[in-house]
Amino acid sequence: MVCCMSARCFDTGLTQQMFLRCSAILSLFLYSAASTAEMVNIEQDLFNLSFEDLLNVQVDIASKTNETLSSVPSTMSVFTRNQIQALGVDNAYEVMNFVPGMQSTRGDWVGAVPKEHARGVYLDNGNVLVMINGERVNESSFGKASVYMPYIPIDIIEKIEFIRGPGSALYGSNAFLGVMNIVTSQERNSLNVLAGSNGRIGVTGQFHRQFNEQISAFFSLSYDQKDGEKYAQGVRDPLQAVYFEAGLDVDQLELRARYNKTKLDEFLNLAGYSSQNQHTSDNQFLGVNYTWFESDNLTVDSHLSYTEHTISSAGLIATFSDIPDFLLGPEWQTIDTKFDTELNYQFDNQWQLVAGLEYAQAEQVEAGVRTTYYDSQSEQVIVAPEYYQQGIVTVLDFPEFDSLKYTFETYSAYGQVKIPYSEMFTFFVGARYDNVNNIDSKLSPRLASILIINPQHTLKVQYGESFRTPVTNELFSNDNVTIGNPSLDSEQVKTTELVWHYETDKLQLNTVLFYNELNDFVNVEPYEGSEAFFTFANSFNTQNSGVELDGVWQIDESLRLSGTYTQYFHDPINPSFKRFASLITSYNLFDNWQINLNVIWRDTVEVSAENGDYFKQSAYSLLGGSIKWQLTDKSHLALKAENLFGKRYDVFDPRVASGAVAGTTEELSLHYQVKF
């Protein structure tokens, strides 16, 4: 690549993308070669590399008690706002690529909706629970959060907590192989604007007001759009996203509202790439929390929430030589309501109890279709010239989907006791019981013991069980392609973990050995006795195991290295990465510069299908990062990069005929932030 920075180059029309790429490359080389200077603490959230703060970061989603990474009874990864901003990523799902045992890639959905890989399992049914401020985003029609909320902007995030492994003992269904909790900023006054490659522009505003000791309010608003990169198949991956969040705190009462709308068109569907592919999703949330009692040792509160999930899509299903392409997709909406009451009590002997009761209702209220071929008389999709609609039409009352309009009712009770047996040994025991009315019931126990051998070494032994309730499509579909199975049981996983944690004033290391016993996985099977092709069955049992390594080394006040490595001892479920790693470098340079570089490495994936198809992606690495320049005490500029050198690569998806889904190309963007 040649970077020309002369006036002649600009006169001949150097593109925005080329300019950003060249600026990034030149800056990286320039500042990596410069000498170390003493760091001046100008803005804590941007330049603070305090290793002590990292070690003592508070996490509570794993136990609902305040713990640090060394004392928490789960395998966890936590990314603070400073760390997230340094990665150069733009979406919360992309942070998964720096978590041991987790990956996020593009999938087979219109608009390249993210797909999660978790501990050797790569399936399309929602095995990772995604939450925003402790509120679940997964819903009952698809089970996946990313279908309904594929884009969550980075600038509104304060912290992301990951549970690696089972979380159903506290959170129920979908907390199967992992939990991602996104904590948004609620006490900031700032404005962020950005411009980037491929026509990208964006703005984020965050506002907070403390009226008195009892009353405060905040709201956040983010807008992001881009034209997207043009691929060899003649399509782009455009984005248009709006995110809004607001809250009001009055003494013991908390009110929250959230709205997210994402539009991802073109790119890829099951039958291939098409500029006609469409995908729009939105997510609306209202919640109220009231604290009935709060003292030094007892807290009792109740929470009521209402969530709407809506998806409107149409993707390429088939192409023909004599008639227009056939596109089809869902026009679905689900409504979730939840009420829970929780008690947190600390006994005089330092034992701590967390217990709660929960009622949840998930109703699919719309099950329509968007299609290019439709016969209004028979109310069927018929692919023939006379039924072509001259484009995509929406049919809200589609008879073949009527069976999907179902209401799940779930009654749950959970409890956990923290037992500090001594200063050196702590024991956690807990369980959750979920009864999904007329579907299934599950008991999810969890045990954890934490032994502090000495101030440097901590040993953990953990056991947990989790489950995933089947979704409406698996249970009740009734169309020409699939027949649901209302007798399905929930998928279940039993996980045993051995964890070694090492910590000094400069170094933190974690080694995790895990073993999963996976039972009753829902699999698609041929269906006999009907015109439909497939049905669903609990026909898949397996085991997997692996090792996860991660560490942070504070070399000096200005330089920090962190890295991860994951290796599975068994082949992943559906071909995926068996080995992968990441490396992050953060370097404070001069008085007001910070450089962050990261590398993602993924191992080879090879797939040979029974029909003779063959997919191979060689091992590859992706370079990204950011450069931040502190302009004043309250403002800074940042140049961010993902896949800086534009590496071309594919990831595997079993639902695509060729198996190949194009990976994300380079993303370069310039960000300006001011606080007020």
Characterization of the model:
The protein has 676 residues and is mainly beta. It has one domain (34-675): TonB-dependent receptor, beta-barrel domain (Maltoporin, Chain A), CATH 2.40.170.20. It contains 8 helices and 37 strands. The chain has a 22-stranded antiparallel beta barrel. The protein has a 5-stranded mixed beta sheet with strand order 1-6-7-4-5. Strand 22 (440-452) and strand 23 (457-468) form a beta hairpin. The protein is globular. The two termini are 41 Å apart. The model is unreliable at 1-47 (pLDDT under 50).
Write a concise synopsis of the structure shown.
Helices cover 8% and strands 54% of the residues. With 676 residues, the protein is mainly beta.
Q: Report the sheet-strand fraction.
A: over 45%
Helix content: under 10%
Q: What is the CATH class name?
A: Mainly Beta
Number of beta strands: 37
Principal-axis shape: globular
Radius of gyration: 25 Å
Q: Which spans have pLDDT < 50 for at least 5 consecutive residues?
A: 1-47
Produce the secondary structure layout.
Layout: H1 7-11, H2 16-32, H3 44-47, H4 51-55, E1 76-80, H5 81-87, E2 102-106, E3 114-118, E4 129-132, E5 135-136, H6 145-148, E6 157-164, H7 168-171, E7 178-184, E8 190-196, E9 200-210, E10 215-226, E11 239-250, E12 253-263, E13 268-269, E14 272-273, E15 278-294, E16 298-318, E17 326-346, E18 352-373, E19 388-395, E20 407-420, E21 425-436, E22 440-452, E23 457-468, H8 472-476, E24 482-483, E25 491-503, E26 507-526, E27 534-554, E28 559-568, E29 579-589, E30 593-602, E31 605-608, E32 614-617, E33 620-632, E34 635-642, E35 650-652, E36 660-662, E37 667-675
Parallel strand pairs: 4-7, 24-27
Antiparallel strand pairs: 1-6, 2-3, 4-5, 6-7, 8-9, 8-37, 9-10, 10-11, 11-12, 12-15, 13-14, 15-16, 16-17, 17-18, 18-19, 18-20, 20-21, 21-22, 22-23, 23-25, 25-26, 26-27, 27-28, 28-29, 29-30, 30-33, 31-32, 33-34, 34-37, 35-36
